[in-house]
Write a structure and sequence with these properties.
mainly alpha, 3 strands, 3-stranded antiparallel beta sheet, 413 residues
Length: 413
């Protein structure tokens, strides 16, 4: 604010971007009944959630830990066994992810403009939007891992560990692991974050903190993970059965080598070589309806340049916030280079919040050196892409000729 209490141009820019992000977040909660039938992996997760509600043995989806099925089951219990009920939990998680993106950006950079830009970029991303409107686990995974990073950074802010945020980080870490095991790689990066944060203050890592960290980020996540197996245990199983289930999941993913028309290698994801059609059908002559899981090219094609710029800046200036994001993003994405199973574009949702924050940080520097006009133009371009592709993201009817014009590359079909 100016000295006279009137908003400055910077304040207005922040409020405009936050309002736009709020509108984009609200679109995640609307018209969840489209598509009206189960699509893509919903055919596994929704029946599994129904089995949870019926108190039955979960046989429909056993390849991942239970939490996503429990959340979808809670959503169905609250909203009803209908399309909106299947997807309501994912939609809420998608909105909360925008909040966490803002909170993490602001905590790292103490800059409301960078935080607002990051939130808007996340709100305008196609993959984040689509995953927020489908009953599958990846939006929960991204939310919990991002929350763990935000809470842990807040816990490290004072000279001594703040217990409240540290407990939240441990709970979020456990929830992430109970959603998908791929959370383990970026969560392991929290140890690096601890060293970086303490080094920033010229302090060696405190030995006195080790015991607290082992409880909060070692034992507490294990407790949370095991709690998600309570329905499994209440159905007559034992802890030995829980251990056996972990072995079965490991063997399943290690042996999953069968190909898929929409699979894509991990290195291709930022390039948007192969998106995923969760649904496509012609609903009338020359009218189609589909759900395309695809990132916003305006954002995604800036990810690698943003990583390079952040790396150079971190080396030259020793920027700790940039290093935190680079560590989290590199572990979240790089782990897939070692995964032998078939992979899809949606796996990139886990490192995507880290990348979005790096792009926003880069735009903040552009604004400081070149001016805000370039940033506004970039954001307008991202918004234009989102508006143009919205029918394909939200499953709205679209004229076939229009749909064909939006397919920029043959690999998008």
């Amino acid at each position: 604010m100016s000295s006279g209490g009137r908003p400055t141009g910077r304040d207005l820019l922040v409020w405009v971007m936050l309002a736009a992000a709020a509108i984009a977040g609200a679109t995640r909660l609307g018209n969840l009944g489209t598509p009206p039938a189960l699509v893509f992996d919903e055919v596994y997760y929704v029946p599994a959630a129904r089995q949870v509600l019926a108190g039955q043995e979960v046989t429909e989806e056993r390849t991942h830990p239970p939490l996503s099925k429990l959340l979808i089951a809670a959503s169905i219990r609250l909203v009803g066994d209908r399309p909106a009920g299947w997807r309501a939990a994912s939609a809420v998680a998608g909105v909360l992810l925008l909040v966490v993106v803002y909170a993490l950006a602001h905590a790292l950079f103490a800059d409301r403009t960078v935080a607002a830009v990051a939130t808007l970029l996340a709100a305008l991303d196609g993959l984040i939007f689509v995953e927020s409107r489908i009953a599958k686990p990846d939006i929960f995974l991204a939310l919990f891992v991002s929350t763990a990073y935000w809470a842990f950074w807040r816990a490290l802010a004072p000279a001594r560990l703040a217990r409240g945020p540290l407990v939240l980080a441990g709970i979020a870490a456990g929830a992430a692991l109970a959603t998908k095991w791929t959370a383990a790689a970026p969560l392991g990066g929290l140890a690096v974050v601890w060293v970086l944060a303490r080094g920033r203050r010229g302090q060696a890592p405190w030995r006195a903190e080790l015991a607290t960290l082992l409880v909060a980020l070692g034992m507490l996540p294990v407790v949370v993970y095991l709690l998600t197996y309570l329905p499994f245990l209440q159905s007559g199983h034992t802890l030995a059965d829980v251990v056996a289930q972990q072995r079965w999941m490991l063997a399943f993913h290690a042996g999953l080598t069968q190909g898929h028309p929409y699979q894509s290698p991990w290195w291709s994801w930022p390039l948007l070589v192969r998106p995923i059609w969760y649904e496509y059908r012609e609903v009338a002559p020359q009218v189609a309806r589909g759900v395309l899981a695809i990132g916003n090219p305006v954002v995604w094609w800036a990810l690698l340049p943003a990583v390079v710029a952040a790396t150079v800046g971190a080396v030259r200036a020793g920027g700790v916030p940039e290093r935190v994001l680079l560590v989290g993003g590199a572990l979240a994405w790089g782990q897939y280079a070692l995964v032998p199973r078939v992979l899809f574009l949606y796996h990139f949702l886990l490192p995507l919040p880290f990348g979005v924050l790096l792009v926003a940080r880069g735009l903040g520097r552009v604004r400081a050196t070149v001016g805000g006009g370039v940033v506004v133009a970039y954001l307008a371009l991202a918004a234009a892409w989102f508006a143009a592709f919205f029918p394909l993201l939200a499953g709205r009817p679209i004229a076939v000729p229009h749909y064909q014009r939006l397919m920029w590359f043959r690999t998008w079909i």
